[in-house]
Amino acid sequence: MPSKEDYFKRVMILGQYCYPERAEETTSLVMASLKSVLPEGPVRDIRELLPEPLRGLWEDASLSGKVDEGETDCITLAKNLGNYPYRAAAERAFEVILASIREAVDDKSVEKIREMLPLSVRPIFEKAKSCAVDGSAGDFL
Question: What digits encode the pLDDT tens for the residues 76-90?
Fold first, then answer.
């Protein structure tokens, strides 16, 4: 089980971030955006599937800044709160964090999490597989 510091180092690599603070901000923003649009049940269930330190980060993630209460798309929410110039930049942030989640959980949990994600995020979760080191990476290592 990695430490928070190790987890953020991995996020820095996946996202090609220069500063650990950017990895922390991105993790919090993506997790909080997801939590804000999911019903209480999936928020709790995803939490239970995450190992530490991700579980604690999921619990602590909350939105800050001016939040559009009517926004139902977590990617748009993250774009606006994260000051991303384009939706694609926010999608990339999601891809990085979702890849880190894929790396941290087993295949059963990956499938359970995928089913609980908003429909708009599921393709990004699938795309994240290509940058995550998961079970399929064993064929190449």
Answer: 999 999 989 999 999
User: Taking Cα atoms as reference points, which of 101, 111, 92, 121 lies closest to residue 53?
Assistant: 101
Q: Are 102 and 132 in contact, with CB atoms under 8 Å apart?
A: yes
The pTM assigned to this predicted structure is 0.90
Estimate to the nearest angstrom the gap between the alpha carbon of 115 and the chain centroid. 15
In the chain, the number of structural domains is: 1
Look up the domain containing 93 and give its range: 4-130
- Check: CB of residue 108 under 8 Å from CB of residue 119: no
| Preceding omega of 53 cis (within 30 degrees of 0) | yes
Specify if 141 maps to a domain: no
